[in-house]
Amino acid sequence: MSVSNLSDSQQRAVNELFRRIAPVADELGELFSARGHELALVGGSVRDVLLGRASKDIDLTTDARPERVLEIVKDWADAVWTIGIDFGTVGVRKGGWLLEITTYRSESYDPASRKPEVMYGDSLDGDLARRDFAVNAMAVRLPGHEFVDPYGGLPDLAAKTLRTPGRPEQSFDDDPLRMLRAARFAGQLGFTVAPEVVEAMTAMSGRIEIVSAERIREELDKLILGAHPRAGLALLVETGLAAHVLPELPKLRLEIDEHHRHKDVYEHTLIVLEQAIGLETAGPDRVLRWAALLHDIGKPKTRRNEPGGRVSFHHHEVVGAQMAKKRLTELKFPKDVVSDVSKLVELHLRFHGYGTGEWTDSAVRRYVRDGGHLLERLHKLTRADCTTRNKRKAQALSRTYDQLEERIARLADEEELAKIRPELDGNEIQEILGVPPGPVVGRAYKHMLEIRMDQGMIGKDAARQALLAWAHDNGILA
Predict the structure, then answer these.
(1) Are 462 and 393 contained in the same domain?
(2) Which of 212, 245, 415, 459 is the most buried (most CB within 10 A)?
(3) Are 26 and 60 in contact (CB under 8 A)?
(4) Which GO terms describe its biological process (predicted)?
(5) Do 270 and 345 meet the contact criterion of CB atoms below 8 Å apart?
(6) Which residues have a Cβ under 8 Å from the Cβ of 204 and sit 6 or more positions away?
């Protein structure tokens, strides 16, 4: 394939793509052509290769209906799946490549329905016209490698601009989720959204209400896990879309008056998110990023003006944890994500009780126990939550947290903090007290755990005496 509009680097990228996938793409293109059908590499697959982004997932489009696609690929593919066939998509695996073959189509929403209606098309140009953005409306015909760009996706790619192939109002009316995709691509790719697209997003923001929670969650999650989520989130707030899909975020823009001053919570939140991302060590961390974004959402509900011009937000971490749980549940996130994010929101202020290191070892043990498997993320969220411009204060907070982590490491070496258990297990408690399994054993176990947290290892004999004393005090033993 050779196209004069491609830059040298883009031409090399395209040539490299086809060098790698030619055995699959060209072979499949020949297969469709021999049966009288068109096939083209399309959308994100073309966009990403022109951006120099590698992917093993290949998107293809064809004039063949899904049932016909199944007939064509059944003896060629290593595996076929039909989970998306109702939307015109057939999944195929060939060697190490995953391909999705979708019939020329358009999607539109009935005003009374949350599900898109799929209508099949009959031409590649028509299919491209119905795509979300011009940068996703480029294609390469197979097997001839003819580059197709009827809506100027290549210039937009060079300018890093998001435009719709046609009128943005029509595009967003066909599928309102595209408004969220604009924000997601702004965050993922660092693109600027064209003014007319922003204007349409603002005017039509309420239309997003018709889209299912699952589809909204998917786009928001991809945005949060992107390279530049701040840009996408700011666009959601600016256009009013956030008020419909993540209303807690714009509510952080609290009014600041000259008498009662506090930091800009919205701006603070975006900085915390960026700083949390900077602390990641193994790629995007969904739980950490969502916790950073939601950690202060309890502040608007708990804001109080205090004497002397102070503003307080007492217990905003507790209120925020409840709000985070509710929002993520409504967005249909998995239960473990909901639980982990809300727990981090609840714990994010705990460190500030540490002062300059006054915590006892038992308090440190409780911090570790409460953090549990989230402890490393709690470390990162706590550090990211420091956005003060006072360098001396920031350095002091950092040093204090360094000291806390050092104490945790020392105690962990001495006591295996992550595995803290009472020195007497349930069977031993039953034997010493002469009681059967039941609530008494549970209460005794909890008491012995508190002793373990407060006093550390005291030895079996001392633990036995402490248990007996507790049992006498509580009328369990005469």
Answers:
(1) no
(2) 245
(3) no
(4) tRNA processing
(5) no
(6) 169, 172, 173, 176, 179
pLDDT at 364 > cutoff 90: no
- Distance between CA atoms of 188 and 171, rounded to whole angstroms? 21
Cα–Cα–Cα angle for 147, 151, 152, nearest 5°? Answer: 75
Same domain for 58 and 142, yes or no, is yes
pLDDT number for residue 107: 63
What is the model's pTM? Answer: 0.80
Question: What is the phi/psi pair of residue 172, to 5°?
Answer: -75, -25
pLDDT at 380 over 50: yes
**Residue 270, domain member (yes or no):** no
User: If we measure between CA atoms, which residue out of 15, 28, 1, 189 comes closest to residue 100?
Assistant: 28
- Burial group, residue 4, by CB count within 10 angstroms (0-12, 13-18, 19+): exposed
Is residue 149 domain-shared with residue 84, that is, in the same domain? yes
The verdict on 286 and 217 lying in the same domain is no
Residue 34 lies in a domain: yes
Of the residues 123, 138, 158, the one at which a domain ends: 158
H or E stretch covering 115:
none
- Are residues 19 and 126 in contact, defined by beta-carbon separation less than 8 angstroms? no
How many Å separate Cα 303 from the centre of its chain?
Answer: 28
Do 371 and 443 fall within a single domain?
no
Boundaries of domain holding 185: 160-246
CA distance 259 to 257: 6
Total domains in the chain come to 4
Give the residue, 249 or 475, on which the prediction is more confident.
249
User: For the domain that residue 83 is a member of, what is the CATH number?
Assistant: 3.30.460.10
Of 147, 142, 138, nearest to 25 (Cα)? Answer: 142
8 Å CB contact between 357 and 369: no
Question: Are 95 and 19 in the same domain?
Answer: yes
3-state DSSP assignment of residue 355: coil
β-pair type (192-193, 161-162): parallel
Q: What is the pLDDT of residues 405-424, one digit of tens each?
A: 888 888 777 665 556 778 88
307/302 Cα distance (integer angstroms): 16
Pairing of strands 192-193, 89-94: unpaired
- 284-338: per-residue pLDDT in tens? 999 999 999 999 999 999 888 878 778 778 889 999 999 999 999 999 999 999 9
CA neighbor of 187 nearest in space, from 133, 233, 240, 137: 233
Give CA–CA dist 203/40, Å, rounded.
35
- 73 and 183 part of one domain: no
- Residue 131 and residue 105 in contact, taking contact as beta carbons nearer than 8 Å: no
**Final residue belonging to a domain, choices 376, 392, 419:** 419
DSSP character at residue 78: S
| Same domain assignment for residues 140 and 5 | yes
Burial of 155 (0-12, 13-18, 19+ CB in 10 A): middle
Q: What is the pLDDT of residue 2?
A: 41
